[in-house]
Amino acid sequence: MCGIIGYVGKKTASPILYDSLKKLEYRGYDSCGVATVNGDGEIELKKGVGRIESVDKKVDFKSLTGKIGIAHTRWATHGKVETRNAHPFTSCNRHYALVHNGILENYVELKKELVKKGHTFTSSTDTEVLVHLIEEKMAHDDNSNLIKIITEVSQEAKGAFTFLLLDKVRKEIYAFRKDSPLIIGLGDNEFFASSDITSFLEYTNKAIILENYQLAVLNEDCIVYDVSTGLKIKPKVSTIDWTAEQASKSGYPHFMLKEIFEEVEISKHSLEQDPVKLKAMIEVLKKSKKVFILGSGTSYRACLLASIYFAQIAGKQITPVLGSEYKTYQNLVDKDTVIFAISQSGETADVLEGIYLAKEKGARVVSLVNVMGSTIMRESDQYLTLNAGPEIAVASTKAFTSQVLILTLLAYGLADKLNEGKDNLNEIVSVLDQVMNLSETLVKLAKDVLNKDDLYLIGRGSSYPVAMEGELKIKEIAYIHADALAGGELKHHTLALIVPGVTCLALVPNDQTKDDMINNIMQIKARGGEIIGISSENLDVFDYYIPIPQVHLESILMIPVLQMISYYLSVIRGNDPDFPRNLAKSVTVL
Ligand code: G6P
Asked: Catalytic annotation on 2?
């Protein structure tokens, strides 16, 4: 969702801000804007609705001069998608410009007061209130102490309000974090402040991950304050082991395709978990009385699959819960409960809300995240990381595969069969390249058979959540209505929709579900439906066959197959798979 970036240094800010904005694009947005302090010491600002490139064609962001500036990608929450609602916003006296990530909950009351005091608002956003509030308070403080004023604002404002304030007089950026992430990049005589490390990775991999209520003042130096005490602090500087190359398309037409193909390599790293941390995680899960495994979207599908493998491999019950549905279970949570949060970004608001509520009940929080320093990671008592590198495409692919591999490894760990688990999972990793070689077959099937208005996917046991993830992907990026169901449920409802010509993807792993799956396939064929089988065995009942290598846990190998199918369907239908309409990568609102 919204992305913020600020730059101060020796170079012209606008081209850097423009490039960094492009790297924030993947978070999802509908409008964008840039403000700098120009050579005359004035704030200059350009913004517009639409993709960054098309707005740039109209307004020419790079024509902005000055060596300090802030920029923003907006995903509308308060106020329509209109240029006047795009960030940055300026104070009435144009001394300040501000960009914001989050939702200011009490903006209506604050705005009323400010209007009474004579402030003129140009937008319908919650954000604009912040810049006027700071201006108002500064006027009463002889324009002297911005740190004190930001402290006061942080006490009065409610909600999530991470922001960058550009001060034209001091030529400084005030980077404040409350709830939404904010990372300071420490370059060579230059500083960055961004929602996302990848936006400045080209310039530096040294970063300070700000905590809530911390404020970084950026000029020729970077000084960090804890506004709750008003004191300067010495923040921890982290070295990020991601590279700019990892966050680029590297010759692929889309990030999504690149990330699917990366699974071959990434999966190895995902399984190379720090043995001490892995053991500690296994122990906590083993000893826990109750475990709720929490996730949203694709990560929730990983939770579902984990609950099946934990049951089958380790005989351990864990309850999968959607982040947004967590509250339903709150009265079951106590100090003997473990909340296991699964999240690529580590910032998903639905999951975070569950974590905060569970903590109130004294639950222990553990997590599996991809983004180091993310909020979920920092709210956890212990965590494991996916080691999947930056995931840019909105549709999660390599992170899902990594989540599934690590969660399955944990299931083996709980069963005291870690070595057997490693062998089985490494066997899967070793044949992933063969699955990637299916791309030609899948393109043809996508063109000739699957490009329909409705698709059905059936699975049983471990292949059922995989079918659900396939359904999600097909809807998310191909905009095709898809329906995943457990094979046994067909006869209870969806058989009513099976008529000649209906297409069904059947996931048939070589396990205990195979005979029942064949039975369900027969029910579909008896009504004229056609079957595309994904299996290690070419069964007579298939009309089309997608061959996967024979391994233990075959369902896992079906994941990249369905990811590729959804990708090719999306491209064939003329969509941009990296930017599905109305969706965002990192969903930081409830
Ligand atoms: C958004 C993304 C999905 C993702 C979900 C959960 O909806 O578009 O791809 O699965 O958030 O994200 P997380 O970062 O928590 O895994």
From this structure: yes
CATH 3.60.20.10 residue window(s) in the chain? 3-239
Q: Which atom of ligand 1 is least distant from the CA of 376?
A: 15
Whether 3 contacts 194, CB under 8 Å? yes
What's this model's pTM, rounded to 2 decimal places? 0.90
Task: Calculate helix-pair angle for 127-139, 107-116, nearest 10 degrees.
Answer: 40
Give residue ranges with CB within 6 A of ligand 1.
296-299, 343-345, 348, 351, 394-396, 583, 585, 587
Catalytic-residue membership of 585? yes
pLDDT in tens, 208-235: 999 999 999 999 999 999 998 889 999 9
Which of 137, 316, 398, 585 is the catalytic position?
Answer: 585
Which pLDDT band holds residue 431 (cuts at 50, 70, 90)?
A: very high
- According to DSSP, the residues that pair with 100 across neighbouring strands are 163
- Give me the mean pLDDT over the 61-66 stretch: 96
Beta strands in 177-313 (DSSP E): 183-186, 191-194, 206-209, 214-218, 222-226, 231-233, 238-239, 290-295
Per-residue pLDDT at 143? 63
Q: How far is the CA of 587 from the centre of ligand 1 (A)?
A: 7
Per the structure block, which two tokens stand in for 450? 């699957």
Ligand 1 mutation target, pool 587, 589, 590, most atoms within 8 A of CB: 587
Cα 417 to ligand 1 centre (Å): 31
Strands 162-167 and 96-101: antiparallel
Q: How far is the CA of 543 from the centre of ligand 1 (A)?
A: 34
Query: What is the CATH code for 3-239?
Result: 3.60.20.10
Instruction: Write out the residue limits of the CATH 3.40.50.10490 domain(s) in the chain.
Output: 249-430, 439-577
Distance from residue 179's CA to the centre of ligand 1 (Å): 18
So what's the architecture of 249-430 in CATH?
3-Layer(aba) Sandwich (3.40)
Q: Domain 439-577 carries which CATH code?
A: 3.40.50.10490
